[in-house]
What we know:
By secondary structure, this protein is of the alpha/beta class. The protein has helices spanning about 5-20, 40-50, 65-75, 90-95, 100-115, 135-145, 160-165, 180-185; strands at about 25, 55-60, 80-85, 120-130, 150-155. It is globular.
Amino acid sequence: YNFLKIETSLNKRRTDEATKSGLPAIQTSYFGEPLIRRDLHKPIACAGKKGIMDVFITTNGSLLSKTRAQELIDAGVSRIHISIDAYSERSYDKIRRKGYFKRVLNNTHSLIRMKGAGKLPIVRVSFCKNSINEHETDSFINYWREHGADQVAIQEYLNEEPARAYLFPEKRRIVDDFVCLDPFRRLS
Length: 188
């Protein structure tokens, strides 16, 4: 059987069902790299044709070649979030072992140039602050503001223990003031 063909038909059926219920947005992945799917632009285009206003992806940027970027732009993706997490190659290599810092930078710069200022998709670069990269926070913000990112997001590293405490209350060992809202606002 052809796995991609089955998956495409399942995605189409899910999109049809969701639009009947008034779904306004689709995130194409949740924990994982969406660009490993070579025809990702097809379900994105399908969602746009069905009236879904916001179709976005989160990627590490390593597979976001010029060809892939153009396919996504042409398909109508509304937002591309790129998790970079470092300003320097040294920090990047510690955080994303076997990463491709220079490739990610080049891919991100190409995407920004290709889409043009003030046009979709919105390009968001993010940085998850931790003990390895926190000294680079200001440099990261300034660099990407100067180089055309639409949004620059700085996130705080969140120890997984608070989330685990909600999932497994019998193992709760901390004061739990964290609530993850994703189960109440996203379908994965």
